Each structure stands twice: as structure tokens, then as C-alpha cells.
Description:
The chain is elongated, with a radius of gyration of 38 Å. The chain is an all-alpha fold.
Amino acid sequence: xxxxxxxxxxxxxxxxxxxxxxxxxxxxxxxxxxxxxxxxxxxxxxxxxxxxxxxxxxxxxxxxxxxxxxxxxxxxxxxxxxxxxxxxxxxxxxxxxxxxxxxxxxxxxxxxxxxxxxxxxxxxxxxxxxxxxxxxxxxxxxxxxxxxxxxxxxxxxxxxxxxxxxxxxxxxxxxxxxxxxxxxxxxxxxxxxxxxxxxxxxxxxxxxxxxxxxxxxxxxxxxxxxxxxxxxxxxxxxxxxxxxxxxxxxxxxxxxxxxxxxxxxxxxxxxxxxxxxxxxxxxxxxxxxxxxxxxxxxxxxxxxxxxxxxxxxxxxxxxxxxxxxxxxxxxxxxxxxxxxxxxxxxxxxxxxxxxxxxxxxxxxxxxxxxxxxxxxxxxxxxxxxxxxxxxxxxxxxxxxxxxxxxxxxxxxxxxxxxxxxxxxxxxxxxxxxxxxxxxxxxxxxxxxxxxxxxxxxxxxxxxxxxxxxxxxxxxxxxxxxxxxxxxxxxxxxxxxxxxxxxxxxxxxxxxxxxxxxxxxxxxxxxxxxxxxxxxxxxxxxxxxxxxxxxxxxxxxxxxxxxxxxxxxxxxxxxxxxxxxxxxxxxxxxxxxxxxxxxxxxxxxxxxxxxxxxxxxxxxxxxxxxxxxxxxxxxxxxxxxxxxxxxxxxxxxxxxxxxxxxxxxxxxxxxxxxxxxxxxxxxxxxxxxxxxxxxxxxxxxxxxxxxxxxxxxxxxxxxxxxxxxxxxxxxxxxxxxxxxxxxxxxxxxxxxxxxxxxxxxxxxxxxxxxxxxxxxxxxxxxxxxxxxxxxxxxxxxxxxxxxxxxxxxxxxxxxxxxxxxxxxxxxxxxxxxxxxxxxxxxxxxxxxxxxxxxxxxxxxxxxxxx
Length: 865
């Protein structure tokens, strides 16, 4: 019977080859292998030969030492043979030592390489020789080699097949030819060959039918009706030969086809049929059944089927329940997924670690962290957690913001003897990076190197990020260089993390240098996050024009700005004090996210307050209070208005602050800076001090207050203007208490307002934080602080001035004051009040230099420090 043209274009991805199954297969490898072994056994192939043939395409790769010396030598000689070289000469020296099984090994190697030309030349040579004339097995192998190369070589497959005498053709050669057509999605031709096979009196085997079934099941344009598949299945069932009896591969092929077509009733029928036939379902079977009912929207029926199976003594294995559980998790059906766990326990099927992992991951994605903890405790009573389980927990708690708990879990893992892998360490390092846990990150990195693992770029990025959140710029840069030295090349995430560390402190020149190195040395271009980092660096460094330019460059680079990007530009406008542009940016932000974040609202409130636009400020506060979509906005607005000062209500404020901390240090720093800023400009100093204290408890601003025998310092270079004034006020009051307590005085007291390259420039005195903090210090303590010559980023008070302040406090005869700065909450100004704009610019943060003689009084002493 003539076949249709073999030049039909078909997808080469499909295949079902009895002899050389490729890596991509629709059916399970184990089932294919068992079916194939039966055919090979009937073809007279020994166990050794079968072992050398393998059960998959990967198995066809010759293992070192797995081939004889003669076979390896022949492969080498044939591989080096020129196009017109003589194959006979390659075989002369070994012709009496080679068997057909050896030639089969040669063909397998050429199949692995895709070298069909040499396979065909060798085959034609063998046809002309009496001592190595190909048998049916060799014909089948060559057909398989040619069939892999696409529809263009199907004609040659036919030639090889017809070269085999008709009386020598068995199911092996027919099945190989059918597989060649099936692999190229020519299911109609595969079925015609099956009919030819029957007409020639050759009995098909189960492998033959499975090949045709798989070809028909995989057809999509148009799909083969399921009734035709059932017809082939019926032929197999009614065939009297035991070799045609449907096997696991048959049922899995049909179940997969039913799942694709959402035929849940047929899936149930097939399940019952295979159980009656004594064929036990495997993992693939159960997954196909679950997929069929999931597509039909009737997963509850699967649970009933499993219960019926358990009642009749056919309890599904744990992977069956796992597949059903995963189907529920894909649609977020938590209660149903948990019900599957309880059902498998009731059915007498012990849950595995994989079962619990699915639920742990589901709870984590839904933010049900208490449920994660409870389920993990339950798991530990029945199933020992493995590395994969801990990896899920570490990722879940890391994504949820429980960074210290991640570190505790890592130590618990080591204590219980579960060995971490590199994914484990990466998860911990990422959590340490987000949480600013630099000491823990160093310990984990030490563990990685101590255990002989190579730290990945992801692990080093976590360390760099953690050090950056602690303002440990030099250490972060050293870690960055260290990863380059050991051959772990930084990724764009690493560069962004290091630049972000500098950006938080306003070190825009250093951030620019990092990105310049990234582009010029690593040939990595900036992404959207890179531009966001630059915008923040310029804002914190008071380079507001450059911040807007960076935003425009981001747009020109065709990156779509998100909420973070728009907030960065809004911050630039608010720092600049331009109300109209800030309003426009806020409206654009509203068009993107509907409800701008609490950070954006605090920026606008600070802007209105600094410009005495109290009516606009109160309107925005009222809008926040009535925002039913965000509890955070309501609580913060009420807190600013002084409605949550008592103990029970302040717990609501702490809850909001706790949630912000779960977002990681990057977000928390921006959140607390914005909140402290608005509280200061609204005159809420007492509440601002409480908020700052909470931030310090979370580990934010670890550089803020540091005391040694030589220096008492406050480092506010990473804070907003209002946040810096709050911190300086708290620090001054601590200074007051220490002076009053007659403690030993250091050589100087210092307020750090700038870090990095900007410390060397005198223009820094005019930058917002430096300007306002300097003015505030000297307004508070009457010109006791000044800029030293050796550093332009610090404002210092010498020991001699501290002694004068101490003497003044001692001479006050115990006047009832709590410190240098009253930290009380003022009444909110009424609309129309002029609090900030009524003052002259010189009185509102302008730089007033002190007497240089005072600055030089002990300059020589300080240089030694």
C-alpha cells in the first residue's frame, strides 16, 4: 500500500521509538523500557546486549570502558574516515572479531551523534558482505537512526525496511518503521503501517500498538477523536495473544490523551479497567487522572475514587495524593489540599516529606506563617524533614520577612544533622541580605567555604546587601572584590546591591562608579532597578536635577517605571520643595497604583508642612484616614493626629511598623525616613522619638549612635532631613544626661552628615541635611559645634566645649529640664499658620560658620585621632 508523501512538514519533537527513545517523551521511561525489553527478548537479544543498548537515548551513550577495544577502534576509524574513504579498509583488521552486536553498538554511537550519513554508508557496506550481512535487528536500528532526522529521511527508512526480505520481517522491524513515522507526527501513516503489518500476517505486539496509540494521542492538527484511540485499545484487549495485552504504557498513553481532552469520565473508566486487569497505576497514571478531573473542574471526584480504591485494597501511593494536592494548590484551594493530607492519613498512606512541602509552600505563598510553623511541627513528629523541606521553609520565611527565623532554621538544620546544600545557603544569604544581618551572612559564607562548596554570585550578593544595609561600605566593597577573585563573577543583582548600599547614604559618586565599572568592565547594561538606585542616590545626595535626568534616561531606555521609580522622582520634587510638580507626580503615581504607598503620602505631607500648606496637608490626612483599602494609611494618619498615643492604640502603630519591617531593610529605611520626616515637620517630636526607637529595635540605622572613649557620635547621613533632626534631638538629650552624670568626656562629640567622596568638598555644607543639622545644633547649643578642617562631612564639638556645657549644666542648680531639646508633641497648626515659611532663609537652615579660632583650638589634637 502506497504511503502519502513523506515531505509533509511535521513537528520533530514527537517520537515513540522502541529502540532509541529520545529525552523528550510523553510516556514514562520505565514503562517504555519494560515494553521494549519484551520485544528485544523476542528478537533474541541477550541481557548483555540489552544492557549495552540502554533504555533511553541517554543510555545509548557509551560509558567509559563499556565498549570493547575493537568497537571503540572501529568507531574512531569510521569517524575519521573522509567522505570517499574506504569502509572496507576500516574493517579489514577486525572483520573476524566483530559480531552483529558490536555493529549495533557502533550504530548506537552514531545515533547519539546524529551521524546518519556514516550509519547509512556502513549499512550499505554490510549489505554487500556475507560475513556481516545485517539481520532484522540491525535494520531496525538503522531505521531508528534515520527516522530521528525528520520527515526528509522517511523514504530512506522505507528503503531499509524493504531491503529486509518479507519472510524475515517481524514485529521488531515493523514497529521500528512505525516509530519513525510516529516520531514525525504522521499518525495516519503509522496506522496504515499497522494495517499493512496485520495484512502481511505479522502479529503486532503491545509495543507496536503503544507506538501507534502515542502517535494518535499526540496529534493536534486536527486531534484524533478519542473513540479511535479506544478502538485501538479494544483491539489490544480482544487480541488472544498475551504479547498484545495492554500494559502500563498503554494505559498511561490513554490517560494522558483523556487528560488533554478533559475527559474525566473516560479517565475513570480507564482506571477501573486497568485495576481489573491487574495493572497497577504509577505516578504518571495518577497525575493524568488528576489532570483530567482538574480540567473538568471536578477534583472532588478524584478524592472519592482514591477512597474507593483504598476500600478495595488498592490504596494509592503517596505520589497519587501528592498530585491531587498539587492540583488543589494550583488554584489556591488550601482547605481542600489539607483535606487530601487528612484523607491519605485516614486511608493508611503515610505522608512523605514531599507531601508536607507542598502544603508548607502553599501556606507560605498565602502569608499564613503560623500555619507553616504548626504544619512543620506536625511533620517533625512523623516524617524527618529533609534538605528540600528546609529549603522551602527558608524561602517561605525569607520571602515573608522573618529573616532572623531563617537563620534560626539554618542552625536547627545543622543541629538535627540535615546537610545543607548550596540552595540552602543561598536562601539564607538572601534573607540575611534583605534583613541586614551581616554577621550571620559572614557565618554562612564561612560555612560554605569550610564545607568545600564554592560561594555563588547569589550568596555573595546577599553578603554585599547585608553589609550595605549596615552602612559598612568598605566591607561591602571588599566582599564585592573578593567574589571576583575567586571566580564568582558578579551579576547585575550584585552591582545593583552594592550601588544601592551607596545610594542609601547619598554616595552618588560611588554609585556612579559602580555602574561605570559594570558597563565598561563587565559589559552589563543598567536595568530598571539600576536606574531606581541612581535616582535614590541622587535624591539622598541632594543632586535633584540628576535624579530627574536619571528618570528620563530610564524612560528613553524603554523601561516602564513602576511605583518605586515614580516615588523616587516624587522624592526629588518634594526635597526641592516644588509643590505643583510634586502634585503632578503624585497624580501620575495614583494612575499607576490607584492607592500610592504610605511613603508617597508622607512625602506629600512633609512637603505641605514645610511650605505651611496646612489645608492641603489636612485634606490629605483625612483622605488617608478614610481609606478603607489600607489599614496602614488609616493608622499612620491617626497617629500623626495624636489619636493613638495611649497604650492599646499604640499597639496598632507598632503592628504597622512591624509589617513594614517584614518588607526588608530596603523598604523599611525609606518608610521610617518618610514617617520621621513628616512627624518632625508636623511638630510631633515625642511620637517621632518613639518611632525612631522602634526602628532601632528592628536593627535599622545601626550606625546611628556610637560611643567610644574618644568619640561620641551620631551618624545621620542615611536619614531624611526630618529624621536626622529627630535623631540629633534624641542624641543631644542623651548627651545632656551623660554630661549631667559627670561621665568621662571624650575628645569630641560628632554628628556625621555625609560620607564618601563628598566629605572632601566644602560645598557639602550647603546640602540639605548638613545645612539644617548644623543650624539646629548651633541654635540649640549656641555655636558649640563646627565643621573641622579635616572632614567636611562631620560637625563636631571639642572636649573643651563639652566641658563648658557640663559646667553650664552643673551651674543650673538642678533646673527641671529633661534635656537640650524638649521632645513633646505640639498641637497641629491651624490652617493659614506660618511656621516655616515665615522665617528668613538664613534662620531656616542656612549655614552660619563659627569663629575659626574655636575650630582651630584643638585641631592638632584631632588630627592624631
